[in-house]
Amino acid sequence: MTDTTSRAPVVGRLGRKEFIVLVAGLVAINAFAIDIMLPGLQQIGASLGEADPNKRQLVIPAYLLGFGLLQLVFGPLSDRFGRRGPLLVGLAVYCLAALCAFFTTNFSALIALRLVQGGGAAASAVIATALVRDVFAGNEMAKIMSLVFTVLMLSPILAPSLGQGLMTVMDWRGLFGFMAALGLIIIAWVWWRLPETLQPEHRRPLSLRAVLEGFGIVFANRVSLAYIIGMAALFGALMGFLNSSQQIYRDVFGVTTLFPVFFAGGAICSALGGVVNAQLVNRFGMRKLSWVALAVFSAAALVMLAAGLLQALPLALFFALSAAQFLVFSMILSNFGALAMEPLGEVAGTAASTQGFLQMVPGAAIGILIGQMFNGTVVPMALGHVAMAGLTAVCLVTMAAEGRRGVGAT
C-alpha cells in the first residue's frame, strides 16, 4: 500500500489525479448506462412495441440486476487473477452487449441484453472499489471515494441531456452506440495505463472453499454488513426515484423538454456533496458525517411525503427536497462504502463484490417496486424513501453498534 499522504505517482505511471479520474470513469460508465436511457424510455417502448409505460422502466433495473449478480463472480476472480484481466473481460462484455442492443428489434431481447451489459459492467464497479482499497485506507480512502463520486456525478449532469441530444439526430439506438464507444475508450485507457495493483502475495486461490471463506469473512463482520445493508436500502430509494423520475416530472409537474435540466440540477448537488465530504471527512470522520447526512435525507423524505399526502407539493419544493437528498446521498454512499471496506482489506475484491451485490440486487428490486407503484403522485416514491432511511438507521444502531463492541467483528 502506498503512503496515503504522498502526492507522488500512485500506481505505475498513473499520478494521483489520473488514478482518481480513471477509477471514476470505471464507475461512470454505469451511471451513463442508466441515466442516458431516461429520455429514451418512452421512444424505446413505442419503437419495440411495449405499450405499458411502467414496463418500459425495466430497461433500467434489468441492467442493475445483471450488474449486481455478476459482482459475486468478478470479486473472487479479481482476488485470484488480479484486477486488470477480469476488468478488461467485463468491459468487453459491456461493449458487445451495447452493440447487440443497437441492432435489436424486440423489447424482451433488449431487456436480456441489458441484463448481460450490466453483468459485464459489474467488473468495473467491483474492481474500481478494490483498486482504491489496494492503494488507500481509512479516511484517505473515504476522501478518494468522495472525489471519485464527485467526478462520477458529472455523468448524471450530462447523460440525460446527452441522451436527448443524441435522439435529435438519430433514434434511441444512438444511445447504445455511444455506450459502446465510451466502453472502448475505457478499455484502451486501462490497457495502456493501469498496471496490476494486487500484489502476488495477496492473491487468493479460486476454489469454492476459498470463495465461501471470503464471503464468510464479509458476512461475519457486523460493522461492514450494517453499512452494506444501509447502502442497499438507500440505493433502492435512489433507484425508485430514477425509475419514475421522468413520469413524475412529466405527469405530476408537467415538465417535458426541461426534464434533463432538472435532473442535471440534482446531479450537480450530488457532485457538490462529494466535494463537501472530501473536504470535511478528515476533520469530522466518516461516521459523524454519515449520521448527519442520513438525518438530512430522512427529513427531506418526510417533508416530501407529508406535502404529497396533503397535495401541497409544488415543483419548486419537490426539486429543493430532491436536491437536498442528492447532496447528502453521495456523502452517505462514499462514507458507507469506505466504512464497509475498511476492515476487509484481506479480501478486498470479494468484499467489494459482496458489497456491490447486496447494494445492487436488493436495491434494484426495491427500485422496481417503488417505480411500479407510481400512481400519478410522488407519494409512493416519498414513502419508499422514508422506509429505506428508517431501515438504514435501524441497521446502523443495532448491527454496527454490536459489531463495534466486538460481537462478530473481525
Automatic annotation (TrEMBL):
Major facilitator superfamily (MFS) profile domain: residues covered: 19-402
Pfam families in UniProt: MFS_1
Membrane-topology annotation of the record: Multi-pass membrane protein
Listed name of the protein: Bcr/CflA family efflux transporter
Transmembrane segments: 20-38, 58-75, 87-105, 111-132, 144-163, 175-194, 215-238, 258-277, 289-310, 316-336, 357-375, 381-401
PROSITE patterns per record: MFS
NCBIfam families tied to this protein: efflux_Bcr_CflA
SUPFAM superfamilies reported for this sequence: MFS general substrate transporter (SSF103473)
Keywords: Cell inner membrane, Cell membrane, Membrane, Transmembrane, Transmembrane helix, Transport
Primary residence: membrane
Gene3D superfamilies xref list: Multidrug resistance protein D
Record's keyword annotation contains Ribonucleoprotein: no
Protein family (similarity comment): Belongs to the major facilitator superfamily. Bcr/CmlA family.
Superkingdom of source: Bacteria
Localisation per UniProt entry: Cell inner membrane; Cell membrane
